[in-house]
Each structure stands twice: as structure tokens, then as C-alpha cells.
Design a protein that fits this description.
The complex is a heterodimer of chains A (117) and B (427).
Chain A: E1 2-8, H1 13-22, E2 29-35, E3 42-46, E4 49-53, E5 56-65, H2 70-81, E6 89-95, H3 109-112
Antiparallel strand pairs in A: 1-5, 1-6, 2-5, 3-4
Helix pairs in contact in A: 1-2
Chain B: H1 6-33, H2 39-66, H3 96-114, H4 124-146, H5 151-155, H6 163-181, H7 197-216, H8 224-252, H9 257-274, H10 280-301, H11 312-330, H12 333-336, H13 347-378, H14 385-390, H15 392-397, E1 408-410
Helix pairs in contact in B: 1-2, 1-3, 1-7, 2-3, 2-4, 3-4, 3-6, 4-6, 4-13, 6-11, 6-13, 7-8, 7-9, 8-9, 8-10, 9-10, 9-11, 10-11, 11-13
The chains are: A alpha+beta (117), B mainly alpha (427).
Chain lengths: 117, 427
């Protein structure tokens, strides 16, 4: 069991959703985050105050998957998130000790395997 | 000054300010309808129209529209406000300066309306150029036809407050603009949703408020035509709203807020040409009947490849056309003191109205199409796909609507040479 964390551009989020769907990865969460990964800084001006925007808006996907699904999930995040420019984001795969589905109490593999109903 | 009526002038000063408010209101309405990353750019297109169209109007637009009664275009006698002063405008009891300012606000909002067709992808620079040229080549010409002594008004076509130069001109120009500029890159593939429905409702409310000046001021007095148009501006959109609710209920079993905001605009547009010519009862019928074609076109248009993004054609072009035609049927001399429509025995009026709905959309569409093709040959009309994905606010204006300031580093004047350095080179 792994937790796959993918941080992507907000404008690529829809492509990532489509790619995850095609890879049959169901069940994930998505949140807005701000971060910095070495891309070009944006300079903005507000009534004479010029600022360098160090942080960029990103979308963070968190997908808990069984080991068989790790490659598919990583592949989908790459496929959906890539534009080729600096700032496309990162993917982290971390081991996952334990998972519980709250509704049924299923744990571990059973909890991260999607159910149809 | 002799011939100036103080009551009329007082009302027209207020009406002018009311109409000017409509353009920022339109900016708010449009800004709510786009995605959050394009909020400022969308709003700024309306502000740009205030800037550019006012200057072109003062320079030559007003003169081309209102100097003399040539069939196709006015003269240059009033260019750069030459001779426009405190003396009453011919045929009115208000100083020509007020008449000029009132008409300027019409040119402004019409120019701003077209932006609805090209938001979220057209670059700001070409839009400024387009606004300047469009306000002269299309708006001033059609205003001359319908208001300034041109062939439509002298032939007997009735257009109280701008069904021809404002509503049909903007609607059919918007269609041409959408075709030339092309669809947004994600159009038809992703859901591109309004980001703030409250802006949309507030914008529509402020537009309606301003529209009382737009229609109520188009009699240039506090006389009967103005009073009739003023009250019809309350009645007609209310009827449109009710029917729009019913159509929403039938179609989706729920009454939608953005639908309601759209209905307010459609209702106001419907009554714009007819306001001072039809009875209050017919105005309500116009609002009710006129809702249906605009509703249908909005539903149909989103299934096509034509990304006329904010439905200027449905809300303004179509509703303006219906309003102009409606005069031909239901104008009533006992109410307007000018002419009857077909329903009251004067079929010739309907023909005069038909001429307007044939000529004005054709002129607006063709001229806008050519104008944008020419501008597009000189400079790219669209942002690149990458810029479009990033959002027009950052790449066109260097600002964001909903900036948090987190992670922002203040650049002191000495630091300006350090800007925009990639922190890591992609290699």
C-alpha cells in the first residue's frame, strides 16, 4: 500500500482527473496548495507596489493505492500534469501503514480498493 | 440659454451618469461569468471601452453620428466637439454638451458589450485597437442611421433607445468576433464555469438600474415618451423574468440564479427599442414573448463549436431584433404620438422595422469580421495556449483578482533589475 502525492499546476488539474479516470484509479482527494519548485517568479504590481510572487498555486492530489496500482497512478499524474515547462510539479510515493474505510470498518487493502456500491 | 429646459436638463444629467454606471456593472456581470483567473481582464475590457470609446467619440464618433443628415454617415462639423456647447441640441431642450455626453455613454457600453464574445483568450492590446476602430466604423455609423438623421430614421424606422446601434450591433458583432478570434482552447472539452454568481446578479441589478437612464433618457426630456419608456423598463424585464423562471422549471426543474440575471438583461434589451412606443401592457407581452427566442439560442449555442462566450448574440442581438420588430406590430399612436404598428392598421411601420433588422445586423457582422481580420493580420489577437492556461489576469495585467499576498516579496525600487529570474534553470 502506498500513498501517492502528486502536486500539479491548477490548469492541468482537469487533464489529471481525466488521466486518473482512464487509468481506472478511483478514489482520491484534491486540495489547493501554494508552493515553490524552482519556476520563474511572477512579478506583479499593485498601485505602485511591485512584488515578486514567490509561491504559485498548485493542486495536490492524494491517492492511496494498493501496490499494483502505484505505477498506473504515477503514470496518470505524469501524463495529465506535464506541459514540459518548469513548474509542472512533483510526485511523491510514500509507504502507507494503515487505512480504514470509515463506513464499513474495512482496513488496509480492502479500504483502498474501490467498491462499486 | 434660450430653448434650454432646466427640468429636462436636470434629468438628462442624471440619466447620463446612470448609463455610465452600466459599463462597470457590465464588467462585474461579465467578470462573474468567467473563471477566477480571468476576472480582472474581463472587467478591464469594459473599463477599456470607457477609456477608448470616450476619446474616439469626442474626436470623430459623435460628429459622424450626429452632424448633418446624410443617408449613410454624418459629417465632420462637430469633430473634436467643435461647436458643441450650451446651446440646445436641435430638436431637444437640453444643451448639446449634455446630449453629447449622454450619447457617449451609449457608445461606451456598446463597445464594452462585444468583449463578452472574446473574453478569456483575446489579448488586451488588440482589444484596445479594436474598440477604438469599432466605435467609429460600426457604432457611429449605425447610430447615424438610427438616431442621427440617416436613412433608417428618415425612412421612418422607430428605435427609441438603441435596438439598432446598441443591441443588434453588439450582438451580431459579437458573433463575428467569436468566429474570427476562435474558441477558447478548452471549450467543448472541459466545463468552463462562472466563478461568482453573486457578481453576475449584482451586475445585472446595477445594469437594470442604469437602464432606467438609458431608456428613460432617450426621450431627451421629462416628456411622455421618456416617462413611458421609464415605466416600461420596469415592466418588460419583470415579465421576462417570470417566463424565464417558467422555462427553467420546465427544462431543469429548478429556477437558476444565473438564468435570472440573464433574463434581466434580455428583458431590458427587449424594451430598449420599443420603450417609448408601446403601451405598458404590450411591453409586458414583449417581455414575456421575447424571453423564448433568447432562451432557446442560449441553450442551442452551447452545443455548437461557436464559443460566443457570454452569449451577447442571444441576450442583445436577438432580443434587440425582437424589440425592433415588435414596434412594427404593436406601436400605438395614442401612446407615442408618432406612429401606429400593423396591429393598429399601419402595415408600413412593420416594413420600416424589417429594413432595420435586415440592414443593421448585416453591416455590424461584416464590418466587425473584416476589422478583426485586418487587426489580426497586424498583431496576434489571441494569447498563446500557455498564457490562456495561466489566466489572462497574470499574463495581460500582472495582477490577480484574489491575491493573498502569501509568499509575496516586496521589491524595492533598487531591486527592479533583479525581477523575473528563474530560480532554477530547467537545463
Amino acid at each position: 500500500m502506498k500513498l501517492v502525492i502528486g502536486i500539479v499546476r491548477p490548469e492541468q488539474a482537469n487533464q489529471v482527473l481525466e488521466a486518473l479516470h482512464r487509468a481506472e484509479v478511483r478514489g482520491f482527494s484534491m486540495s489547493r496548495v501554494q508552493g515553490h519548485g524552482g519556476e520563474m517568479d511572477r512579478v506583479e504590481t499593485y498601485r505602485g507596489t511591485t512584488v515578486q510572487m514567490g509561491l504559485s498555486e498548485k493542486m495536490r492530489f492524494e491517492v492511496a493505492v494498493s501496490d499494483d496500482f502505484v505505477d498506473k497512478t504515477v503514470g496518470a499524474l505524469c501524463e495529465g500534469g506535464r506541459t514540459g515547462e518548469v513548474g509542472d510539479g512533483k510526485i511523491f510515493v510514500v509507504p502507507l501503514d494503515h487505512a480504514v474505510r470509515i463506513r464499513t470498518g474495512d482496513s488496509d487493502e480492502g479500504a483502498v480498493t474501490p467498491v462499486s456500491k | 440659454m434660450s430653448g434650454v429646459d432646466t427640468g429636462d436638463t436636470a434629468w438628462m444629467l442624471i440619466a447620463t451618469a446612470l448609463v455610465l454606471l452600466m459599463t462597470p456593472a457590465l464588467g462585474l456581470f461579465y467578470a462573474g461569468l468567467v473563471r477566477s483567473k480571468n476576472t480582472l481582464n474581463t472587467f478591464m475590457m469594459s473599463i477599456a471601452a470607457i477609456a477608448v470609446a470616450t476619446v474616439t467619440w469626442a474626436a470623430v464618433g459623435y460628429s459622424l453620428a450626429f452632424d448633418g443628415d446624410g443617408a449613410l454617415i454624418g459629417g465632420l462639423g462637430s469633430a473634436f466637439l467643435s461647436g458643441v456647447d450650451f446651446a440646445p441640441r436641435e430638436g431637444t431642450t437640453i444643451p448639446e454638451l449634455v446630449f453629447f455626453a449622454f450619447q457617449a455613454t451609449f457608445c461606451i457600453i456598446t463597445t464594452a458589450l462585444i468583449s463578452g464574445a472574446v473574453v478569456e483568450r483575446m489579448r488586451f492590446g488588440p482589444f484596445l485597437v479594436f474598440s477604438a476602430l469599432w466605435s467609429i466604423l460600426v457604432y457611429a455609423v449605425l447610430a447615424h442611421w438610427a438616431f442621427g438623421g440617416g436613412w433608417l430614421i428618415s425612412g421612418g424606422t422607430l428605435d427609441f433607445a438603441g435596438g439598432v446601434p446598441v443591441e443588434m450591433a453588439s450582438g451580431f458583432s459579437a458573433l463575428a468576433a467569436a468566429l474570427v478570434v476562435g474558441a477558447r482552447k478548452d471549450y467543448g472539452r472541459q466545463a468552463l464555469l462562472p466563478h461568482n454568481a453573486v457578481y453576475v446578479l449584482l451586475g445585472a441589478g446595477l445594469l437594470w438600474f442604469g437602464w432606467f437612464g438609458f431608456n428613460g433618457g432617450s426621450g431627451f426630456s421629462t416628456g411622455e415618451g421618456s416617462v413611458l419608456a421609464f415605466t416600461n423598463t420596469l415592466l418588460c424585464p419583470a415579465a421576462t423574468l417570470v417566463i424565464w423562471f417558467a422555462l427553467d422549471l420546465v427544462r431543469g426543474r429548478k429556477v437558476t440564479a444565473i438564468g435570472a440575471a440573464t433574463a434581466i438583461i434580455v428583458g431590458c434589451v427587449l424594451i430598449t427599442p420599443a420603450g417609448g412606443y408601446v403601451s405598458p401592457g404590450w411591453a409586458m407581452l414583449l417581455g414575456a414573448l421575447g424571453a423564448i427566442p433568447s432562451y432557446g439560442i442560449i441553450v442551442w449555442r452551447t452545443r455548437t463549436r461557436v464559443d460566443e462566450t457570454l452569449d451577447v448574440l442571444a441576450a442583445h442581438g436577438t432580443a434587440g431584433l425582437i424589440g425592433i420588430l415588435f414596434i412594427g406590430f404593436f406601436a400605438q399612436e395614442t401612446w407615442n404620438g408618432v406612429s401606429d404598428g400593423l396591429f393598429y392598421g399601419n402595415a408600413a411601420q412593420l416594413w420600416d422595422q424589417v429594413l432595420a433588422v435586415l440592414a443593421a445586423p448585416a453591416y455590424a457582422f461584416v464590418m466587425t469580421f473584416i476589422l478583426l481580420k485586418v487587426i489580426g493580420a497586424v498583431m496576434p489577437l489571441r494569447a498563446t495556449d500557455k498564457e490562456e492556461a495561466m489566466g489572462m489576469d497574470i499574463n495581460q495585467h500582472g495582477e490577480e483578482a484574489y491575491v493573498t499576498g502569501e509568499g509575496a516579496i516586496l521589491l524595492l525600487p533598487d531591486d527592479h533589475d533583479k525581477v523575473a529570474v528563474p530560480v532554477a534553470d530547467p537545463g
